[in-house]
Design brief:
By secondary structure, the chain is of the alpha/beta class. 30% of the residues lie in helices and 22% in strands. The longest helix has 11 residues.
Length: 268
């Protein structure tokens, strides 16, 4: 989204919203700063050919401990966050409200009291439904002890997912964060149905969920395998750019003399 969006028509900074960590270096701002340092050469080469401001990241970091407080509110959309439990402090879940509808995204998390409290009244509630320990061990070749720890202490195994959804009672429960195969999905469904008998979908790539106040439809999208981005806007074309970048004379002297590029077109 950072580089690709810049290439495809975004000429202003990308806005990144995310939580703090238990220490500054584990927070969203530290991540964004490190990413820009890692991409420093790439960003420097593109600035000038692309609008300069599109290379920037504006970080909106919020306290991971806050409970159901607003982290984003624009154009009728309100997003709130609350803590999740996943290995270290800093993981969060989100609730999105728009037009009288509510969607909840749990993120990677162990079952927790905040999700149970703040996911209430969700139209669609998504929460991880990880592989059960035995299936996880068989799939990756792990010993059962490691698989049990990962599935039930770091993530949420299917029966726990079902208990969470039985408490929240959404119009549609969505399980995700699993390694999908017919056998794995069957194991997940078997576990979930031991503790939850409500509306359910297991998320897949390209799954679309259409939600209105009257009904919810789950379908699979049909997409063009070779889809291209739309043309960039005039605002993108006219956005400020610094001078084009050139290598040193030493590198320019390495150009192969047997090739001459075509002339540059005249500016409109």
């Amino acid at each position: 989204m950072h580089i690709g969006g810049w290439l495809s028509g975004r000429y202003t900074p990308i806005h990144l919203y995310g939580p703090t960590g238990s220490t500054p270096e584990l927070g969203t701002k530290a991540y964004a700063d490190a990413m820009q340092k890692g991409y420093a050469w790439d960003l420097a080469t593109r600035s000038g050919a692309l609008p300069d401001a599109g290379a920037k990241i504006e970080v909106h970091e919020f306290d991971y401990k806050q409970e159901n407080e607003i982290v984003y509110q624009k154009n009728g959309v309100t997003i709130r966050s609350w803590p999740a439990i996943h290995s270290l402090d800093g993981a969060v879940s989100y609730g999105l409200e728009w037009n009288g509808l509510k969607y909840v995204f749990g993120g990677d998390t162990y079952p927790n009291k905040w999700y149970i409290k703040y996911a209430v009244n969700a139209d669609v509630a998504s929460h991880e439904a990880f592989l059960p320990p035995k299936t996880l061990a068989e799939y990756f070749g792990w010993d059962l002890s490691q698989a049990t720890y990962v599935s039930t202490r770091i993530h949420t195994e299917p029966q726990a997912f079902g208990k969470v959804m039985s408490a929240v009672k959404p119009r549609l429960a969505v399980g995700y964060h699993s390694v999908q195969s017919p056998e794995n999905n069957a194991a997940i469904m078997d576990g979930v149905r031991k503790t939850y008998d409500g509306p359910l979908a297991l998320a897949r790539d390209l799954m679309v969920i259409n939600v209105t106040k009257d009904e919810i439809k789950v379908r699979m999208a049909v997409v063009d395998e070779y889809v291209l981005p739309p043309d960039v806007s005039d605002a993108y074309k006219n956005a400020p750019r610094s001078d084009e970048k050139n290598p040193s004379e030493y590198i320019l002297e390495g150009k192969w003399k047997e090739y001459t590029p075509p002339p540059m077109p005249k500016s409109p």
